[in-house]
Known about the structure:
Number of strands: 13
Strand order of the largest sheet: 3-2-1-4-5-6-7
Distance between the termini: 13 Å
CATH topology of the largest domain: Rossmann fold
Low-confidence stretches: none
Order of helices and strands: EHEHEHHHEEHHEHEHHEHEHEHEHEHEHH
Structural class: alpha/beta
Shape: globular
CATH superfamily of the largest domain: Glycogen Phosphorylase B
Number of helices: 17
Largest sheet: 7 strands, parallel
Amino acid sequence: MRALRLAVMLEQALEVGGGFQQPLNDMLWLRDWAAESGNEIVVYSPYPKTLEILKEFGVTARLLKFGALDHAYLFLKYCGPFDLVQITLELKSAFERTLIRDGIDVVHFTSTSKRHLLLNQLPFIITIFDGCHRDAPEFPEVRSFGEFERREILFGLASTKAAVVIVNAASLIDDLSRRYAMELDRAVCIPFSPSTYVTRSTPDAAADAAVLAKYRLEPGYLFYPAQFWPHKNHMTLLAALAHLRERGVSERLVLCGSDRGGRDKIDAAIRTYGLSDQISIVGFVESAELGALYRGASALVMPSYFGPTNLPPMEAWAVGTPVIYPEAFKAQAGDAAIPFDYDDPHSLADAIVSLRTEGTRERLAAAGQKRLAQFSEETKAGHREFARHLERLKHRLALTPR
């Protein structure tokens, strides 16, 4: 039986943060799977910078940008009647024609890509990180200007048409099945894993100090790595710090991440609360610096509204940094985080103070390592299941002409 030739699409830019790091983890596992199973992967990305990053890992990828014709095709796909024209004329997008010329059998989207709509002939695998446009539709980034409707189209078609659906939490399988009638046996749960940049970052006092000095930081700060979206809930964190200061507690906070339209409001709130001398906003940081920034922190504080899982807690656990995390995401954190109500600044302030209770840091570090080991075993089980699905596809596709 001939080898399966799998296209691996890395469509998220580095600046997206976890949306780039987790697909990178997935791609590295697929590279090892292909080498062990005698199959092939071909990695594609629309970003030249991603191709350069992949060279660090010994991976040669192909640049595949999406041109005007592909965007026009996507627009027409959102218009239902175009399907009739496509079927009648057997039209293929430029994107799909390129993949067919490259001998691709299956396309694996490592994020929830709209470009699965460009595929008419090739089967595909889709990754769905969350269903937050349904969980919290009040946020503009998942509601405004047709974004909610666009996601409904994508999620509905992707979860029912994909040969395999990759998710990071069992609860998401239930959500997709209930909301879109996804077939349960097509879903594979592969939990998030810490960024490979963090896991391969070993403690080095001099190197860590150099990273902190670069950003004019001293160890012992609260750390929140997140893009500046409204749903990341920086505002509750700022209000919590203001409450703490009223109680005579002054905590330093370091924020990093790219601006997605929420930075101005955050800057204004910092001025209103008078917190300018307590907060450092260092912008987007290099992936190789994340390990040092986590190690320099007294805790990761992550008040995000979106889940059910997130990458930063796992990265904090990997380096032994305590985690303060919403009660709503207890299914991910278990007892390895101090919980709080993400709608209540006082609750978050109390959680931050409780970090200083004797023995808490040690307890959280041990619980984090245990939690990480549990997720590692679940990830291995998910990879085994995914590999079985890939072998199933390989067998079935061998029965049809190429």
